[in-house]
Amino acid sequence: MNLFQSINDALSIALAEDENTLLFGEDVAFGGVFRCSMKLAEMYGGHRVFNTPLSEQGIMGFAIGCAAEGMRPIAEIQFADYVFPAFDQMVNEAAKYRYRDGACGRHVGGLTVRMPCGAVGHGALYHSQSPESLFTHVPGFRVIMPRSPLQAKGLLLAAIRSNDPCIFMEPKVLYRAAVEQVPVAPYELPLSKAEVVKQGRDVTVVSYGQPLYICLNAIKQAEQDLGVSIELVDLRTIYPWDKETVFRSVQKTGRCMVVHESMVNAGVGAEVAAAVQEDPSTFVRLEAPVVRVAGWSTPTPLLFERFNVPDVANIKALTSSDPNLVKELGPAFQKYNEEQFTTVKLPGGSEPVLVSSHNSLGDGRYYDVESSTSFEFDHATQKASGAQSYSLESKHSDLVKSTLKSLGAYVKEHFPNAAYGVYPIEEDSKLAIIIVANKYSPNNFWNGRWRSLYMFDPSGSSLEGSLRVDVHYYEDGNVRLVTNKAVTASIPSATGSGIAKEIATVEKKYQEELNKGFNSLSEGAFKGLRRQLPVTRQKIEWDKVASYRLGQDIGGGSSRR
């Protein structure tokens, strides 16, 4: 069956199984402009399937009256674009009837409103709108939009049989375009229950109705060209929608895109995006902001209608790192990674190596002295590849290697998770010495980084550098603690062991200063720093906050804990 045939079949079943079911609207007895009610008047009689005057307000008022008397009316609005004259009846009567007269046992739960919606390429201002989000602002309705014939039949029967007033939106571009095997027997699909159409691990795409086909095409291309794995979720019922399924998917993938044909402003995508970011368990797993691909916030001009509908290119571009976008942002990514002294493990390697401007070979390649390896680094994905053998050529190569040896002993004993490097710079006249340590303590809701950068001048035996500690606490809010310290020292021996010894002395002193200052910060003052941005239900033990020992927890070895 195609979509209009499956809807016709569902309507026929509903009329056959309950004599209180009525079907009416403009041209409905003639089969409807899209043939969804074809032959039903002949089969069930003109007293149950009939035409109405061209008055959407009258159609809805009559339908509400029938439902209030226990009937199951199925009212058709010929085009969703013309539902607006009936808004008062729908919003102030149908949706509120149960809240107004429910105590008397009266309701209009048997009401189903069908309306073709969406663009077909030539509908322009008055035959291309998709106003579903307007109804999602009205408590009391269920708003449903199927993607296929199989879905349409099961969801429409569920809507007709439900005891809630339902708005059933039918993407008219799919009436003849969507074809699949549909059971002849009656069946229902659950309302307010989303379906995972395709499993994935990197991105969650949430959609409904006609855009799902565009999403599937975009996903196929994105997975083939960009190497991402994408999960596709069909909301099916867009109000009340299935938050649990969407949250579970986003928690798995860490990224979310919402695609719909209706305008982007205050649309379903805005609601899904807000809900995803308001849920604490989902928010903390987001690796990127939620994005929306939707129609323009403008009336649809005939000439540009096809540009107003989400297309494959727009969806594909946002599912991963689009090559053109990455090319434009490449310098920014590179600057960030080099300034942060990003660490990465080489393929087959066990120890992290550094990425910085000091060990750059150009064209995205970097080298590591200790492993005698050069490698290519993708600044967008932060992954290393193309490892090759590399031999350091420097007049200070012996000093570099001895410094690495002594520095390695200090770093491995002093830092729990660190990377370090020594590199000739400034035309082989100086050495850059870098230490980076990362400490993640999610159980106590904080992360921290220690970064040291020193410049050693062999000709003058002088050491200059800076130490930086950056800590983020995120229990019941966000506090970021950042501190810097400049250091200068003279190293008469100018040996690797002498350099490492001076670095150890400087850093130990700095950590002691940090601990002293942090322990003197009162609990009340620290609590007062927090911005109220709840992200977790768990609590840190504030009476023990001093025992976390900021400097030593980030930079101290196990012997100091």
**Distance between the first and last residues' Cα:** 70 Å
CATH topology of the largest domain: Rossmann fold
User: What proportion of the residues form beta strands (DSSP E)?
Assistant: 15-25%
> How would a textbook summarize the main sheet?
7 strands, mixed
Q: Report the count of strand segments.
A: 23
Number of domains: 4
* Arithmetic mean pLDDT: 85
Segments where pLDDT lies below 50 for 5+ residues? Answer: 529-561
Q: How many DSSP helices?
A: 18
Radius of gyration from the CA trace? 32 Å
From the structure provided, what is the oligomeric state, counting identical versus distinct chains? single chain
Which homologous superfamily in CATH is the superfamily of the largest domain?
Thiamin diphosphate (ThDP)-binding fold, Pyr/PP domains
What is the second-level CATH architecture of the largest domain?
3-Layer(aba) Sandwich
